[in-house]
Amino acid sequence: MSARPSDATLPSSGSASGGAPRRANLGATTIDIRLLGPFQVIAGGSPVVLTSSRQRALLATLALSAGRLVSIDALARGVWGEEPPAHIRGSLQTYVMRLRRLCGEETVVTEPDGYRLVVDPSRVDALRFLRTLDQAAAATEPARRRGLLTAALAAWGGAPLEGVGSPALAAEWGPLLTERYLFAVEQRIDLDAGLVPDARLVAELTDLVAQHPLRESLWERLVRVLARSGRRAEALARYAGLRALLADELGVEPGEDLRRLHAELLTADTEPAVHTVPRQLPFDVPGFTGRGPELAELDRLPPGGASGIVVIEGTAGVGKTSLAVHWSHRVRDRFPGGQLFLDLRGHSADTPVTPEAALAGFLRALGEPAETLPSTVEERSALLRSRLAGSRTLMLLDNARDADQVRPLLPGPGNLVVVTSRNQLRGIVARDGARRIALRSFDDQDATALLAGSVGPQRLAAEPDAVAELVQLCGRLPLALALAGERASRFSGVSLAGIVEELRDQRLRLDTLRDPQDAGTDLRAAFSWSYKALRPAAARFFRLLGLHPGHGFSLSSAAALAGADLREARELADQLAAAHLLNQPSTDRYQFHDLLRVYAAELVETETTAAERAAARRGLLDWYLASVAEGTKLVRPDLLTDDITLGAPPVPAVRFTQHEQTIAWYTTERTALTALVGVAAENGFTAHAWKLAWLLRGFFAERHDRDDWITTARTAVAATRDAGDNTGLQYSANNLGSAYLRTLQPDKALEALEEARAASEAGDGTALAVAILSNLSGAYYVRAEYAEAERYALQAVRLARDHGQRTFVPHALLNVSASRIGLRNYDNAAEAAQAAHQAFADLGDRYHAALALGNVAEALEGAGRQDEAEKAGLEALAELKELNADYGTIDVRITLGRLKLRTGRDAEAREHWAEALTVCQRLGDPRIPEIRALLATVPTDGPPSRDAPYP
Predict the structure, then answer these.
(1) Nearest 10 degrees: CA dihedral of 250, 256, 259, 264?
(2) Three-state DSSP state, 118
């Protein structure tokens, strides 16, 4: 029999929705908060004394995010550190109430997920300090930059957050603010040259090195200013003092820049070296692999060393330096002025090279005596441009940090600059006209070729499956592949499958892909240099993204995960994309490189609290569940029962206007959606797990994703069973039974449905009873126990009518008709199917109405009413084809094929069954053997239909 029982569900109902967060007006009280030095609050012109350290920590935490929402978790971390009280919200409410009394009632605004300090960021000295420093960094005129640096430094009052009483805030913000302060002081001192007496600078630097005795960049400036002012002996003495200090404290020598300066002082009276053409390119990469398109693009640069800048950008380990060095060696003869090379250390364990030091090195390489070097960056940059003008020199700037580090080094007309960076250096492209070459991971062919260089082609050919998986586990990243190849060559007795087995464990993958003696080939270290360069908010965003289970993710889902609004999330994601910690395939979608995902997952476990991870997961689950519920309104609205209550998502859920748009979204998000059911179950979000699995069934059924349907339903059953959630178990076990019915596994379906019925009887016994009874009918139908199937179907009809479940009655009637067809009670089956068809039509459910019409056709065919059966079958087929419901056409074509064969139209019968077989094969439907058996019954005397693949 081909009649199908209905997929039981429940009538639709409304779903909960969250309201928009409240907005508050700015208070009238003007507040100034001073965090750079002793903590101080000025409200309305008068000091405010906060006697409690908790209150000071609370206000400081809010002030550092002035005007923006601060989550409960962030406030708890700032106020109590790692030992929050049992009732965090209540304790915070008490402290906030006291703050309002002292600073003004409208100063602190309550938001749904935290609190917000209503104050202009410029009234918080630390934020004003950072903003002014950012403005200084962006300034191109030296005088303006010096003025901004001076203004920013005027706000510095001593050790940051002194007296706040929050070790957590001090640990997070103290080093950042101090480093920005010292870097700003150094820049201002450089710009002071020629404008401020050297004696005053010496006095200031002497005080600074006393406070920060291990900061070599301050010592270098002190030695240089002393030498510049004619106090060479004192400069040498200062160097000797520092060298002794470093030896005693750390057992190390001064850094390269200081040692070079020392050597210059010692040889200041000697003649300058004879000018030579620089040939500084490092050793070329042996066995360079791949990058054909990129090499071709570089080759298309204008010949003869015409002016230009090329930025080769990409994530850590993608092969930027290898490409740049290899191509530079290929074309070095085109540059008679020579080749300059410098590792700018923008992302490394060492301190980044300053423009001053970089310019000094280049000028000395070009023969400029050390004692004649100008003191300022601007003067050195101008001298470099003069020396290289028209010389046709190739300059390779490797591992650049940002545009400010690169721009002073640009040599001007007649030369070519190749810059490599993990950052996109957008300013160099936009303002300086650089050409961008973005490197991505290798394709499979180049990745395999790189492995062959280490392992040998014979060994690769012997284990092709292991090679393919190894390439994927390495994310096709050249550095990872090179490390894996080195490991395989070092352990030649271990199969490649053994190497793959080591790498499969995500927790150990980065440990395996490293050389403990060489930080430059340690992937985790390489990633960490990019991560540590991030600002705290972007670093937190990166960590939390390690919890996202999708290969790619939308901006909205990332915002929900991080507890950020869309604007903030876009800014943070853009920072990560600019640093090549995220890829951005489209404007609102992002994705990790596979190994960066592993690194982020490590960080989120080690650098966030359990409470922060739980809050992030809840936000993500709330958003996805709300978005799936929105899509379900167009796919299977009857699944949205009264039990499917939803929490308010942290950012607006996706809204859909068309069915096709909904399915496209599901297809894009499918990997994340199915994984999230497991994430919810594993982390105690049982309600999210079963509700998400329940709503996804509509998508699974339409897209024929049966394996995902069964897997998520099983997960939900186990989670609700373990949690003792009877309501959730009813839904989950019923869902699992439906999935088994769709795959024609009636015994497993009965086991699941009996568990659902037991949970229903243990609960209120009505919410899902009709659906469970109807699915039990379907299970017995598939087992060909038609009398039992009819009994359960009739019970379902009566119960649905008794409880006014008008939407469900036709589903139960459809199962009655299928059972009676099995019992050969054809006239009564046709009557039940016709009643179901009319009820579905009245409800506007065209799909199920067409399925019911198919059952009408089969019942009438069994009753011998051939003409009526064919008419009903063709009408049902036309409706299903118009709806693009290929799955529903299978049963109807089986019925029409029998009709055609019975009336002697063999070719038409074969055509219907062949088409049904094609649909089954495309959808992976388990009825393939049944249809092949039907095709085998078609006589083969005459010529087969031209469209039929049989006999």
Answers:
(1) -170
(2) coil
Cβ-Cβ contacts under 8 Å for 484 (sequence gap 6 or more): 451, 470, 473, 474, 499, 503, 512, 513
Q: Which residue has the tokens 């200084």?
A: 136
The rounded distance, in Å, linking the Cα atoms of 669 and 457 is 38
- Nearest CA to 5 among 929, 802, 792, 800? 792
R_g over Cα of the chain: 36
Tokens in use for 499?
Answer: 């190497």
Rounded to a whole number of angstroms, the distance between the first and last alpha carbons of the chain is 22
The average pLDDT across 138-143 equals: 79
Candidates 644, 643, 645, 681; CA nearest to 764 is: 643
Q: What is the pLDDT of residues 443-488, one digit of tens each?
A: 888 888 888 887 888 888 888 888 888 888 888 888 888 888 877 7
Q: How far is CA 217 from CA 184, 224, 255, in A?
A: 12, 11, 9
CB 927 within 8 A of CB 890: yes
Instruction: Tell me the H-state helices in 683-725.
Output: 686-703, 706-723
Q: Give residue 752's pLDDT band: very low, low, confident or very high (50, 70, 90).
A: very high
Q: Are 86 and 6 in contact (CB under 8 A)?
A: no
**Residue 117: count of CB within 10 angstroms of its CB:** 26
For the record, the structure tokens of 133 come out as 């420093």
Provide the pLDDT for residue 718.
96
What's the burial of 106, exposed, middle or buried (CB within 10 Å: 0-12/13-18/19+)? middle
Token look-up 């060298």 returns 243
Give residue 548's Cα distance to chain centre.
6
Cα 414 to Cα 62, 337, 506, 778: the distances in Å are 53, 10, 49, 80
Residue 314: closest CA among 199, 455, 191, 419: 419
Q: How many CA atoms lie within 13 A of 47 on its CB side?
A: 7
Residue 850 CA from chain centroid, whole number:
43
CB–CB of 564/113 below 8 Å?
no
* Cα–Cα distance, 643 to 631 (Å, whole number): 17
pLDDT score recorded for residue 941? 54
Quick one: how far is CA 437 from the chain centroid? 23
Phi, psi dihedrals of residue 367, rounded to the nearest 5°: 100, 10
Q: What are phi and psi of 24, to 5 degrees?
A: -120, 150
In this predicted structure, the answer to whether residue 414 has a pLDDT above a threshold of 50 is: yes
Cα separation, 813 vs 736, whole angstroms: 22
Residues contacting 938, CB < 8 A, separation 6+ = 901, 906, 909, 910, 913, 950, 951
pLDDT score, position 903: 87
The answer to whether residues 52 and 102 touch, using CB atoms and an 8 Å cutoff, is no
Convert the pLDDT of each residue in 632-688 to its tens digit: 999 988 899 888 989 889 999 999 999 989 999 999 999 999 999 999 999 999 999
CA distance 311 to 327: 13
Contact in structure between 781 and 822 (CB atoms under 8 Å)? yes
Please tell me the distance from the alpha carbon of residue 750 to that of residue 780, in angstroms, as a whole number: 8
Burial of 662 (0-12, 13-18, 19+ CB in 10 A): buried
CA distances to 237, 444, 463, 468, 492 from 456, rounded to whole Å, are 58, 16, 12, 15, 11
Q: At what angle do helices 886-902 and 928-936 cross, to 10 degrees?
A: 20
Burial of 157 (C-beta count, 10 Å sphere; 0-12/13-18/19+) = middle
Residues across the chain: 951
788: burial class by Cβ within 10 Å (0-12, 13-18, 19+)? middle
Q: Would strands 114-117 and 31-34 be described as parallel, antiparallel, or unpaired?
A: unpaired
